[in-house]
Amino acid sequence: MASREEYETKWNVTNIDGERIQLAWLMYSAYIIVFLVSIFGNSVLILIIRRSKSMKNTTNFLILNQSCSDLLATFSRVIYIAVIQDISLRKLWFGGISGQVTCKLFLTCLFVPRNFSVLILVAIAIDRFFAVTQPFRRSPLSQHLKKTIVLLWLWCIVASSYMLVKGTVKNIQDSFYCDYNENPDNIFNEWKEFNASAIIILCILPVFIVAVLYTIVCYKLWSREVPGEQTNHSQASAEALKTAKKVTKMMVVVAALFVLCWFPYYLNLVVQFTGHGKRNYKSELSLVWLTVAFSGFNPYIYLTFNQAFRNGFHHLFGKSSRQIKIQNVLSFRSQSVELEQMHNVVEHPSKTRKSVPGT
Q: How far is CA 320 from CA 40, 183, 300, 323, 350, in A?
């Protein structure tokens, strides 16, 4: 069995010089900022969707679940950096059955919300695809929305069960460490297959699907023409088309943010696996921070691009002096916003003089 000094040397937690301490404090400050930004933004987004009846549609329900996973991802990742990779604590954990259970669950929680957030982006892209290409039909996702969400969560838990098996607490000279396997010498090689699968399933494939779907959606929307006559029907159709374009722009920006924040992290893994690079403490902390930043900055894209979210934000904080009561939402409308608008245009053309709420 390796000694405590040998173990800490392998994990690069010894030889703590002034430069590394300075870097650590800089990174911890950056993580704290993202943590606070994520807590505020995602909590506000959840409150807005749950409080407003007009916000309860398929896309927003998916966004609500994404915000929940982003909160969990922020909590787990910040705890991981602050406790397991902390310079002073040196990966210290606690022993016993409770230590083993909490270590396995904690390491699993590092991956579940990340996987779920990616799948939600794909689900939203599918919802946008059906809403634009088949506006007068309910998409399969809308018809089975709650079942889909439950299945996505279950799939993410199953996909992350590797951590339940490999996660363990080691006792080295009366110090406990929460790690991924029992042999630090082989951890990198054992993770090659796991991370290779993660790169394909959680990065390349989702990005490809989202890119294809949004390319089709953008082509359909920007090539669609509204009748030139200024009738109530054409005005309502123009407003519905405008709304669909804004929602699509918003989701394309979210998908682009995901690529920007996660691609460098996965690219670094590929470089290491191919033997063209070595593990670097500074770069890994920075790349992991970038992935956490996605969870923190994501809700502000919705608040920036979506007028309904902005209105909800002003309404929420305009009444901050009053007691905020959150009612349980038992059901969500399955239709997308523009789908409902187009139905109104077709079935009640004489009642479309009121402007359609924009996003």
A: 14, 53, 20, 7, 39
Across 217-233, average pLDDT: 71
Burial profile 181-203: b = 16 or more Cβ within 10 angstroms, e = fewer: eeebeeeeeebeeebeebbeebb
Q: Tell me the three state secondary structure of residue 175.
A: strand
Taking each continuous run of H as one helix and of E as one strand, the counts in the chain are 14, 2
What is the per-residue pLDDT for 293? 92
248 or 193, greater pLDDT:
248
Nearby residues of 76 by Cβ (< 8 Å), 6 or more positions away:
106, 109, 110, 113
The C-alpha angle 251, 215, 344, rounded to 5 degrees, equals 65
Long-range CB contacts for residues 253-256, cutoff 8 Å, separation at least 24: 253/301, 253/305, 254/121, 254/298, 254/301, 254/302, 255/121, 255/125, 255/207, 255/210, 255/211, 255/214
Q: What is the pLDDT of residue 89?
A: 44
- Answer whether 86's CB lies under 8 Å from 20's CB: no
Residue pair 335/139 in contact by the 8 Å Cβ criterion = no
Nearest to 105 by CA among 34, 62, 169, 198: 169
pTM as predicted: 0.76
pLDDT 10s digits, 310-322 = 888 888 887 553 4
